[in-house]
Write a structure and sequence with these properties.
The chain is 22% helix and 28% strand. The chain is built from seven helices and 21 strands. The chain has helices at 35-46, 81-94, 143-147, 157-160, 176-186, 205-212, 311-329, and strands at residues 8-10, 16-18, 23-31, 51-54, 68-69, 79-80, 98-100, 104-108, 114-118, 123-131, 135-137, 153-154, 168-172, 191-195, 217-220, 223-229, 236-241, 249-254, 257-260, 264-266, 297-299. The strands form five sheets. Strands 1, 2, 3, 4, 7, 8, 9, 10 and 21 form a nine-stranded mixed β-sheet that branches. A five-stranded parallel β-sheet has the order 12-19-13-14-15, with helices on one face. The longest helix is centred in the C-terminal third of the chain and has 19 residues, at 311-329. It is elongated, with a radius of gyration of 23 Å. The two termini are 43 Å apart. Bound molecules: NADPH dihydro-nicotinamide-adenine-dinucleotide phosphate. NADPH dihydro-nicotinamide-adenine-dinucleotide phosphate binds at residues 140, 172-178, 180, 197-198, 202, 262-263, 306. NADPH dihydro-nicotinamide-adenine-dinucleotide phosphate binds next to helix 5.
């Protein structure tokens, strides 16, 4: 017998590990662990698809940095983001989903089964792949901003706006998201500052109009944020006006909440060679489905959703991906 003969082991999850070559064959591989990935895992596990889920860099996704979640159905008293993600993960594991720490670092989708590599060097061959890698909100990169994340600094007005009823908030950004978030917050807060680095907004004309005619929103053009002020929670902002000009001026404003709306980065980079995305990087799916341009690869959650970006819509699209994948594997 050759010393290098491949040894195949049947695991309890019915994936097959080729020990010497370290190739693991998986029926349904889910990449990403937000509400989309975990929900796909619940449905796939209940459909006997033996899902294996790689959690990625931030296990649990964006909700792990959220405090209170009050708009996810089924939690009448609200729930914290981390507890909710643990609940959904436990639900998937209850049905046998194999949920692992680790990253998928490389993919080769040129043929089925699809070939992928984990950060631990495990080579995977997957019959189908569900991409649920999410999107990452962009931050300004200030030390004070990172320190106060979850204590007055947020990247989601729909998630956290409710906590600023009759308070003063600021939104930074000049695109459609910033205008939409400022408009949304103006229905709750007593005043909204919109901090825009250029002398004009980038948002669509309709959205600009809505902001500029809203008496609760004050747009601070040509302002940049130097510092978020506050020790345990946000109390204000230090801003610089007309930076780099003779009229440069530093000002302070009092606020209770600071919302980032300077764009998101969809986590699709490693798939772009094979999977169609839009110009920002959001994966394109066939409308009304989770199917990508590549049969056998499905996408759900924020990595394919530039519009809604909610935990509940991500969970819904995770369900769609598992159902689409199940039909694909059945040859339907
Ligand atoms: P955008 O990239 O369109 O806008 C980002 C904004 O943030 C810009 O105004 C940009 O300024 C500003 N910005 C970026 N970096 C910094 C920084 N470091 N400091 C200060 N400001 C900064 O992102 P959006 O999320 O707004 O939109 C993404 C896409 O989604 C767009 O295509 C948009 O149209 C779409 N969208 C559509 C909606 C709808 O139709 N309802 C709702 C939301 C988004 P600058 O202009 O100077 O570059």
């Amino acid at each position: 017998m050759s010393f290098f003969k491949k040894i195949e082991i049947q695991t309890d999850k019915s994936s097959i590990i080729d020990v010497l070559g370290k190739v693991e064959r998986i029926k349904c591989l889910i990449i990403g662990s937000g509400p989309a990935g975990y929900t796909a895992a619940i449905y796939a596990a209940r459909a006997n698809m033996d899902p294996v889920l790689y959690q990625g860099l931030e296990a649990g996704g964006q909700l792990m940095t959220t405090t209170e979640v009050e708009n996810f159905p089924g939690y009448p008293q609200g729930v914290t983001g981390p507890v909710m993600m643990e609940d959904i993960k436990n639900q998937a594991e209850r049905f046998g989903a194999d949920i692992r720490w680790g990253l998928i670092t490389d993919v080769d989708f040129s043929n089925r089964p699809f070939k992928l590599t984990s950060d631990e060097g495990v080579n995977i061959e997957a019959e189908i792949v569900i991409i649920a890698t999410g999107a990452t909100a962009k931050y300004l990169g200030l030390e004070s901003e990172q320190r106060l994340r979850g204590s007055g600094v947020s990247a989601c007005a729909t998630c956290d706006g409710f906590f600023y009823k009759n308070k003063v908030v600021a939104v930074v950004g000049g695109g459609d998201t910033a205008c939409e978030e400022a408009t949304y917050l103006s229905q709750l807060a007593s005043k909204v500052y919109l901090i825009v680095r250029k002398p004009q907004l980038r948002a669509s004309k309709a959205m600009q109009q809505r902001v500029l005619t809203n008496s609760k929103i004050q747009v601070l053009f040509e302002h940049n944020t130097l510092q978020v002020l506050g020790d345990a929670k946000v109390t204000g902002l230090e801003l610089i006006k007309k930076q780099g000009t003779p009229n440069e001026e530093t000002i302070k404003i009092d606020i209770d909440g600071f919302f980032l709306a300077i764009g998101h980065h969809p986590n699709s980079d490693i798939f772009k060679k094979y999977i169609q995305t839009d110009e920002i990087g959001y994966i394109k799916t066939i409308p009304g489905t989770s199917k990508t341009n590549l049969p056998g690869v499905f996408a759900c959650g924020d990595v394919q959703d530039p519009v809604y970006r909610q935990a509940i819509t991500a969970a819904g699209s995770g369900c769609m991906a598992a159902l689409d994948a199940e039909r694909f594997l059945s040859g339907l």
